Fold these 4 entries.
Entry 1:
Amino acid sequence: MLNDLQKLKQHWGGVSEIVDRWLEERRELLVKYCDLIEIHDFDGNNNGHGEKLKAFCEVMVDYVSVGHFEVYEQLVKEAKAFSDKEGLKTGVDLMDKIQPSTEAVLDFNDKYLATDDLESLSIDLSVVGEALEQRFETEDKMIEVLHNGHLEQLQNSSSPA
């Protein structure tokens, strides 16, 4: 039983590492976003603006992809392993709340991959920024519900009675 507990700790500790790496990617995304919103006069002829926009789009799409295909999946597996039916229900509700921001991110990315016209970029950055802010809040709730509660269970099960 002690070996099972150790294996469980190692496995779900890996989820913590995935979440930590993902949150670091979020920080990088925010830095790239701030780099763009500091530009007040977008000029499609300025390669620096285009490169910053491209880098932002790449990081943003990567962040969203890692969330959907790695982090959320691991969080759901963890909740299932702990038979956390309430957490799973809440997780589904939270994932539904995240979907509109995914669409906003993909629309933004598709638009700026297909055009050099940066005339509406400031407005579009504001819209995608709001979508990301809501997404981050919802993701944080998801981490809290589907991961952090189980960390407590792991710690309690390893404490001497």
Entry 2:
Amino acid sequence: MKPMPENLKYAVSHEWSKLEENNRVRIGITDFAQSELGDIVFIDLPEVGRKVELGEQIAVVESVKTASDLYSPVNGEIVAVNEALEDEPERVNDDAFNTWLFVIEAKDPAELDALMDADAYLNMIDA
């Protein structure tokens, strides 16, 4: 498994979140998640402009083995999706921590404080 970036926050459901300027949160899935899923063949991304709530199921990653739901780490609005993944979803397998899926403009970025840091996430997946 690749090293865990320290600048990200991690969800129990294996998404990573990165707080950026203007309360924007860039979201992807962890390297552990992509390795467990296997070869990713499709990603059902949310629509730009969609209002989302903390904990709401907002996307699906499909692999040759299974499908996995992705959840919003914050309340807010989808402001961008990684359209390159429509034709090349395998980019997530190639580099999960540098392949974002979507961006949410958070109403309250402090909601990210409820997520795990890299050490806590590693402890969870090693348990």
Entry 3:
Amino acid sequence: MSGILAYTFATIVTLPVFALIVFYFIARAATRNNKKSFHLAIDASTLFFILAVHFIMIIIWETSFLSLILTVLLVIATVMVLTHYKFKEEIHFKRVFKGFWRLNFLLFFFAYFCLLTFGIMKRVFDAFA
């Protein structure tokens, strides 16, 4: 049983788009609302996109960039809190965290596909060199 769980987790981390689709259909069955289901799927799969970007970077450059990823997350959070405070003059942590999490989804979703494309091109050129 633990082997099945490990393989499922490994697949979801390796292919976070698969996780996004699975989470969407689960949320769709539970809520019967497309917009809410999509937002729940995005929120649930963000962590998997972050992990996938981390592991792709390890595969491409053979070194861990976890500290850089955590620094980027911290900078984004700081900028969002300060911006929210500047415009609203008080901090609504739930709204700030939701915006932070969804911005991270966009950033790491884009980074995942860019790194995936770069990694494939690098392997192809390395094979011919």
Entry 4:
Amino acid sequence: MNATIKVDIRQLPHGEGLALPAYQSADAAGLDLLAAVPADTPLILAPGRYAAVPTGLSIALPSGYEAQVRPRSGLAAKHGVTVLNSPGTVDADYRGEISVLLINHGNEAFAVRRGERIAQLVIAAVVRAQLVEVGTLSATGRGSGGFGSTGR
């Protein structure tokens, strides 16, 4: 089942000339986000360093939705570059520029060039929790077993 929602998008002046985010296949979950860095000045990420990369875009999500900024597997596999706060969350009431916090876990410096696909944007429905304070929680087979308690 493919559901569709309308999302207003605004291209900021430093993003002009770049393509809008797009799905790369019929069943892709994420829209590719492009780097809106100056064409003559790539952003260089040294090994172990991170930076907020501008996309030149802002969006207006409908209430009840969020946008998740997720890594691109190709950047991670080939260069060790990923989204530091993965997934990053864009709330429905945020109207500022979407930036992607990239980190270079690789051994070589990585140049982020204008128009390069740097992350994916996945639109998702939001479920809000109603927290109910109780004295005890129901018992389960796992109980309070933490990290590694269910196996390797």
